């Protein structure tokens, strides 16, 4: 696609709160006697709401138009490539949507007795089994609501493990590579651990020297994603696992990058004790602009010293078990460990989506998905190599897996056009940008992950766009830095957005400031 | 399915390998040590091992779903933290819009203005409803929002290590709070309550809230459905002692009862599930989290926030703000590890709110309250309750046989779902449980529940 051909729609669409109030009647069928019963016995004055909220009611056509306009100013996988590295934005199959979001599952209460939801529990039970096979682990729990929530479940389990083993006063540290997702150190902190970062070596692997000196008595565990955020497989993973296990630590696998290895390696075989997966990445459930997701977490049957308990027994939440005597699937809450970390057992709908996805592909199909994802990454690299302005730091000769991290540093040095400008240039050509400025160990990082569902033509076009942007950066850097021009708004003012005096986190804050004449 | 989701399938893969100059796909995985390769991957029991057609998948899933019972909404009185409400068709239509459904966290603001505006609207509508200023674009559910609020209070009120929690809060939510704060050497002081309706004991509250208390957490209505007027006193006590007040509130109740802001809350939490989002067998729901515009609070606030700003030409624009609080920037020092949240649900909740407006929401709230009143009268008449005071949505029920038996028979013989059973110290020898009403329940529906509960105790276990 040539620059300028694509244009996003521009609607000057008011906020819902700026519409006139049509005072619509509820959509539910409400018996007048119900409302009357409340009116006859007014809310006692001390409990009554005093202020009236500014919430206008819209008519149905207004609402549908509003969201249709907003949707035309949004961009998802349905429009084109969203090659956000480590986010695995693959196509979200509609067959799953149909069964998950439009059927009876929407009407099933989480406290319904197990015998009334056997078909659902059977799906979740099978999903647990399938995930265990995919990861090479023993027991899976579907409780966490997101990847980071799965991490929290995992590190809380590590904590409980050391606590029950009487070692918690010593085991205070979690080791995390400097290339790790930000959630890893953040999760470790939330579980009360100190975070120790180890650097990445020039070959893109963990710096073994640094790791050896970081691992010690106080090591509670290590969190790692493999392939790394550079898209490189950590070749010495078994050695790393050996080091950590030797001091009594546990290994945690961040499954965000699982799409790069299905069929070729399993965290369980690499020596990991705990692993989470993101069903909204690897298993195709949609991201919905930020969520919902689900983050099942799986365990090796490691025994907690001196307790007769396994890791999965002390993990948070519930799992589905099959009771052979009764011939029933049952939700069983863990009562001897961390305790629940969300209200109900499962973030059910994304999990059922994952069930349908894995059922559709099977082991053979998942392997092929990984293969094409990796082929797409390397096809992209084969095209982008040689375009001046971008380099591939860390072991440029090694094949990448699910993603690759380019550096726009040469372009920035030469023209002043940086990774953010490149990203905006991509938007102007009708593409979503890659993840930028991450991982932190790459200057001017562009982290690209196409996934297996992207077409070769789009990958070619994406590379052409990168080439055009580099050319424009040289010919007219000012123009390159002024982008985007084809999106519904121009470059957003981040300083204004974040300055305390102009910070506007809600419409009422905006109105209050307007009244006071500030901002 | 395989060729449908992987454009061109194996044939295209072969062509691409040739273009890359790789002899085989194996070459791209050559850095994975031989010993780590699963030998028998293709025959592992994952799915049906081989790809299936869409129709095969559909038939399998339909068979499984046929063994999931969805009850007639008019006969659902099950509560305990998840409630039935009517979902307008337009809400489900918005759910299906691909540009929103299949989008990611709006890291690139300029191309995501629609999504950002939708999230900003959600924040702004909740700010109105809760009478708070700053709302994040969601947490997982009410329980995790409450837990993060507790963690936040420890960072705001430095040096204090106690959280006081009303004994009448939902016990599962309390368990989640415990799981979250446990690693941080925090003591939870549970404030004693009346064992009939969970009303907070003011003397016990005075003892529990001290100069060591970082925050006080209370829910409206409480887990027994009581809208407890003593909350106001609790708020005063919390602030006197320099602690933060965290109020958990049903967002529908906030349309007619004093919302968190009017009660003086520093942090407000809740669940948007009651805003027509469905029961979903426990998720996804919508964790609501809000605070006041006080930078001391806002800097410690977890989760994503969308703000209003301007673009290079001065036009109105939206973007993610205060990202330096978040894990992708601040890593180990972030205010939370949360990234994936429940954004889609927050957009649906906003659409639900806007489709009803203030007056529509008030009407729904009055219908729920009115049905609670009507049900309590019927239950009183049938000698099935011992609740008094202001209740919203949920009330305790007393049965003449163990509540679990009554509920189980009501389901089997009458197709009615009711519960859950009450827990200690409220269960009164296992004869008490909860019944929750919806805005759409009719007088006849409510009578049917009372009849079933009476009949259920005459039937065998």
Describe the overall structure.
- The complex is a heterodimer of chains A (519) and B (461).
- Chain A is an alpha/beta fold.
- Chain A has four domains: 57 residues, no CATH class; 236 residues, Type I PLP-dependent aspartate aminotransferase-like (Major domain) (Aspartate Aminotransferase, domain 2), CATH 3.40.640; 128 residues, Aspartate Aminotransferase, domain 1; 28 residues, no CATH class.
- Helices cover 37% and strands 11% of the residues of chain A.
- Chain A contains 17 helices and 14 strands.
- In chain A, the strands form four sheets. Chain A has a seven-stranded mixed sheet, with helices on both faces.
- In chain A, 62% of the residues are buried.
- The mean pLDDT of chain A is 96.
- In chain B, 38% of the residues lie in helices and 14% in strands.
- In chain B, helix 4 runs antiparallel to helix 13, helix 7 crosses helix 8 and helix 13 packs across helix 15.
- Chain B has 461 residues and is of the alpha/beta class.
- Chain B has 15 helices and 13 strands.
- In chain B, the strands form four sheets. In chain B, strands 2-8-7-6-5-3-4 form a seven-stranded mixed sheet, with helices on both faces.
- Chain B starts with a helix and ends in a 5-residue tail after the last helix.
- The chains are: A alpha/beta (519), B alpha/beta (461).
Question: Characteristics of this structure?
Answer:
heterodimer; A: 519 residues; alpha/beta; Aspartate Aminotransferase, domain 2; Aspartate Aminotransferase, domain 1; 4 domains; seven-stranded mixed beta sheet; three-stranded antiparallel beta sheet; 11% strand; B: 461 residues; 3 domains; two-stranded parallel sheet; 15 helices; 38% helix; globular
Task: Describe the secondary structure blueprint for this structure.
The complex is a heterodimer of chains A (519) and B (461).
Chain A: H1 32-40, H2 60-72, H3 94-101, H4 118-135, E1 139-141, H5 147-164, E2 173-177, H6 183-190, E3 194-198, H7 208-214, E4 219-224, H8 237-246, E5 250-254, H9 267-270, E6 274-276, E7 297-299, E8 303-304, E9 309-310, H10 311-314, E10 318-323, E11 328-333, H11 348-384, E12 404-407, H12 409-415, H13 419-428, E13 435-436, E14 445-448, H14 456-475, H15 477-482, H16 494-498, H17 507-516
Parallel strand pairs in A: 2-3, 2-4, 4-5, 5-6
Antiparallel strand pairs in A: 1-7, 6-7, 8-9, 10-11, 12-14, 13-14
Chain B: H1 2-5, H2 9-20, H3 54-65, E1 76-78, H4 89-95, H5 98-101, H6 113-130, E2 134-135, H7 142-156, E3 162-166, H8 171-181, E4 187-191, H9 202-208, E5 213-220, H10 231-240, E6 244-249, E7 267-271, E8 287-291, H11 295-298, E9 305-310, E10 316-321, H12 327-330, H13 343-381, E11 394-398, H14 403-414, E12 417-419, E13 432-436, H15 443-456
Parallel strand pairs in B: 1-12, 3-4, 3-5, 5-6, 6-7
Antiparallel strand pairs in B: 2-8, 7-8, 9-10, 11-13
């Amino acid at each position: 696609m040539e620059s300028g051909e694509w244009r996003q729609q521009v609607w000057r669409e008011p906020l819902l709160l700026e519409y006139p109030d049509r005072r619509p009647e509820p959509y539910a069928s409400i018996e007048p006697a119900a409302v009357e019963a409340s009116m006859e016995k007014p809310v006692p004055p001390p409990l009554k709401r005093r202020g009236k909220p500014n919430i206008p009611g819209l008519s149905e056509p207004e609402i549908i138009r509003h969201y249709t306009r907003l949707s035309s100013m949004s961009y998802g996988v349905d429009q084109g490539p969203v090659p956000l590295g480590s986010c695995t934005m693959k196509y979200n199959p509609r067959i799953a949507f149909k069964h998950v979001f439009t059927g009876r599952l929407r009407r099933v209460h989480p406290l319904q007795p197990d015998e009334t939801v056997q078909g659902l529990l059977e799906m979740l039970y099978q999903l647990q089994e399938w995930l265990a096979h995919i990861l090479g682990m023993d027991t899976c729990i579907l409780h966490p609501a997101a990847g980071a929530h799965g991490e929290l479940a995992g590190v809380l389990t590590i904590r409980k493990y050391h606590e029950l083993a009487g070692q918690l006063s010593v085991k205070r540290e979690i080791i995390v590579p400097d290339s790790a997702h930000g959630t890893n150190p953040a999760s470790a902190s939330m579980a009360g651990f100190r975070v120790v970062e180890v650097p990445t070596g020039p070959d893109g692997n963990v710096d073994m020297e640094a790791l050896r000196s970081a691992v010690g008595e106080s090591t509670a565990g290590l969190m790692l994603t493999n392939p790394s955020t550079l898209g490189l497989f950590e070749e010495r993973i078994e050695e790393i696992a050996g080091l950590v296990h030797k001091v009594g630590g546990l290994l945690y696998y961040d499954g965000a990058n699982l799409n790069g290895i299905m069929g070729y390696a399993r965290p369980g075989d690499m020596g990991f004790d705990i692993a989470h997966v993101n069903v909204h990445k690897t298993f195709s459930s949609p991201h919905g602009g930020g969520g919902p997701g689900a983050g099942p977490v799986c365990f090796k049957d490691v025994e907690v010293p001196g307790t007769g308990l396994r890791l999965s027994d002390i993990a948070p939440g519930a799992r589905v078990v099959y009771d052979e005597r009764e011939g029933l699937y049952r939700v069983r809450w863990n009562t001897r460990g961390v305790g629940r970390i969300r209200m109900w057992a499962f973030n059910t709908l994304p999990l059922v989506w994952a069930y349908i996805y894995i059922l559709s592909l099977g082991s053979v199909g998942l392997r092929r998905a990984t293969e094409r994802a990796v082929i797409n990454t390397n096809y992209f690299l084969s095209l982008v190599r040689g375009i001046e302005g971008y380099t591939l730091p860390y072991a440029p000769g090694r094949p990448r897996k699910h993603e690759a991290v380019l550096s726009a540093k040469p372009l920035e040095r030469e023209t002043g056009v940086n990774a953010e400008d490149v990203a905006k240039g991509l938007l102007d050509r009708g593409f979503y940008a890659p993840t930028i400025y991450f991982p932190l160990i790459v200057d001017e990082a562009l982290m690209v992950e196409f996934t297996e569902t992207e077409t070769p033509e789009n990958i070619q076009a994406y590379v052409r766009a990168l080439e055009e942007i580099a050319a424009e950066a040289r010919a007219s850097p000012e123009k390159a830095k002024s982008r985007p021009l084809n999106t519904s708004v121009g470059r957003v003012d981040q300083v204004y957005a974040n300055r305390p005096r102009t910070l506007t986190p809600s419409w009422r804050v905006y109105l209050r400031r307007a009244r006071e004449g500030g901002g | 399915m395989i060729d449908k989701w992987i454009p061109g399938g194996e044939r295209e893969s072969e062509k691409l390998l040739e273009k890359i100059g790789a002899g085989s796909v194996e070459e791209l995985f050559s850095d994975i040590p031989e010993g780590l390769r699963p030998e028998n991957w293709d025959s592992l029991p994952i799915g049906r091992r081989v790809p299936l057609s869409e129709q095969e998948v559909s038939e399998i899933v339909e068979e499984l779903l046929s063994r999931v019972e969805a009850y007639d909404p008019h006969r659902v009185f099950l509560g305990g933290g998840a409630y039935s409400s009517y979902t307008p068709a337009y809400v489900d239509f918005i759910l299906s819009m691909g540009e929103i459904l299949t989008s990611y966290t709006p890291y690139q603001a300029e191309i995501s203005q629609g999504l950002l505006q939708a999230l900003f609207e959600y924040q702004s509508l909740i700010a109105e409803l809760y009478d708070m200023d700053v709302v994040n674009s969601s947490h997982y559910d009410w329980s995790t929002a409450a837990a993060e609020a507790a963690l936040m209070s420890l960072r705001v009120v430095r040096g204090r290590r106690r959280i006081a929690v009303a004994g009448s809060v939902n016990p599962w939510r309390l368990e989640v709070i415990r799981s979250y704060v446990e690693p941080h050497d925090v003591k939870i002081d549970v404030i004693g309550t009346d064992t009939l309706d969970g009303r907070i004991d003011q003397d016990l509250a005075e003892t529990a809230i001290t100069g060591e208390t970082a925050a006080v957490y209370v829910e409206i209505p409480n887990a027994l459905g009581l809208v407890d007027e003593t909350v106001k006193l609790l708020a005063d006590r919390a602030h006197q002692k320099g602690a933060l007040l965290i109020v958990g509130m049903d967002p529908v109740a906030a349309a007619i009862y004093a919302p968190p802001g009017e009660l003086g809350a520093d942090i407000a939490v809740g669940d948007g599930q009651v805003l027509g989002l469905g029961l979903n067998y426990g998720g996804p729901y919508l964790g609501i989290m809000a605070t006041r515009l006080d930078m001391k609070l806002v800097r410690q606030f977890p989760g994503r926030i969308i703000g209003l700003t301007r673009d290079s030409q001065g036009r109105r624009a939206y973007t993610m703000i205060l990202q330096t609080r978040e894990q992708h920037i601040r890593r180990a020092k972030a205010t939370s590890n949360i990234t994936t949240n429940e954004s889609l649900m927050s957009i649906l909740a906003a659409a639900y709110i806007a489709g009803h407006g203030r007056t529509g929401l008030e009407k729904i709230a009055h219908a729920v309250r009115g049905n609670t009143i009507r049900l309590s009268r019927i239950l009183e008449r049938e000698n099935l309750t011992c609740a008094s005071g202001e209740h919203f949505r949920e009330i305790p029920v007393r049965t003449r046989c163990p509540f679990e038996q009554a509920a189980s028979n009501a389901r089997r013989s009458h197709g009615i779902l009711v519960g859950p059973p009450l827990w200690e110290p409220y269960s009164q020898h296992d004869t008490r449980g909860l019944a929750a009403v919806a805005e759409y329940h009719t007088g006849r529906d409510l009578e049917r529940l009372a009849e079933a509960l009476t009949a259920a105790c005459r039937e065998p276990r």
